[in-house]
Structure prediction request, 502 residues.
Amino acid sequence: MKRRLRNTASGKYAIGYCIFAIISVAIVILSFALLNDVRSTYSSQNDYLFVINELEQSVTSLNENVYTAYVSMSHEQIDQYDALRDKCESSLDKSKSASSDYYLREVVDLNNTVMTYLDASDELIRGIREYLETRSVDNLGELQKQYSEQQRIYSYVVIGFQNAYSARLSFLNNMQDQIEDSILRIVYSVTALLIVAGLFAGGYAVKSMRSMKHSFDVLEDGIDAFKKDVRNAPMIELHTSDEFEELADAFNNSQIVIRNQMDSLAESARDKEKLAEMEKENLRIYGKLQKNNLDFLQARINPHFLFNTLNMITAQANIENADKTAELLETTAEFLRYNLDNISNTVTMQQEFNNLQDYIKIEKTRYGDRFRIETSISRDVYEQHMPCMVLQPLVENSISHGVGTLISGGWITIRAFREDSRVVMEVTDNGNGMSEEQIHAMYESLKNGDDYSKHIGIRNIYRRLQLFYNNDVNLTLQSQNPGLCIRISVPLCMQKESGNMV
Prediction:
């Protein structure tokens, strides 16, 4: 189980150092923020000096234009006035905006004086334009008065600029002193906070080391006690909620396991006696198995004898020119050889189909044209691996209990095809079939594993397929009225190597 970080020894150290780091970083960030704020304030105040200087240059340029226009009385100078006046008004707006952020009486007075100066200049320029349009000598006296008033206001503007510069410079000097004091206070505060954080981290580390030393001592004492007396050593009690507690619990569990193993060793003598008796029983069972194997080999002698006898009769039939008899004997011999060689082996669908063809030839010889047999084996299931003797017993069942009782018109259809990831085998006939009660009885017999004497072939096939395909077999019986359809579905099995069936 994963522990939380604070419940581990390394986590305790990490938490202390993280707290120290967080405090230190916070102090540094705060210091930089304060210094940046002071620097920004000082920079903005310094920029206000440039705003006042820009306004002074604009007013000076405008006043020179007014003087030239008054002296020369020319349209060219009057036309330049509007552009210079717009520039001066723009500089005045900047000065007003700056004075609204940090109020200084001298700057506000300067702005008002400049506004008055602009109004007087506008009045003078309008008078000059009227004179140039009318050339009336009567207007010259009025223009002289307006120009004198305009210049008088300009002298106040000049004084206002001097006062504004002095006020701004004084304000900046005071701010610089405040900045220096703030920097010193910040340095002192940061140093003090870092010292406090360092003391806190050191104290936390000392506390953690003492806790670890205590855990080591408890563990060492518990191990020494266990070495001296394995059975009676006390359990280690440690409640630190970290790896040391886990280690103590693991050691306690080890003590319990060791003591249990010591107790179990005391009973080993009785267990050995039981094992000896079991070995004797196994030897008895093995001897019985060997005898069964011998009986099985003995039982195989008879099929070999029959197979050799059929070969001898076939040779005699060929000598006597009994060709049909010889062909039937050869087919029967091939059929018996297939069963003899593969009864305990895995075969392919193609091998099973070829064996079925031999069986059909034998039955055709017996029954003649009383029924017909049609086969349809899909090539994509030729390599399907399966137990031996599956299709032949199904066909034999259809003949024995179905079309074999008909005089004529009987038919059997044998199909094998792939359906998704499964292989389906179907044998359908138009014989006597089975009633619903008989089909139900057959299902119950297959389900309960009971013997069902009439259809022993179907039961035998179903059991062998269940063993081969690990019970993944679907068998259905469907009455055709007349006839019966036996359908068997098994998993697709193309990779299984041929060999003995389990």
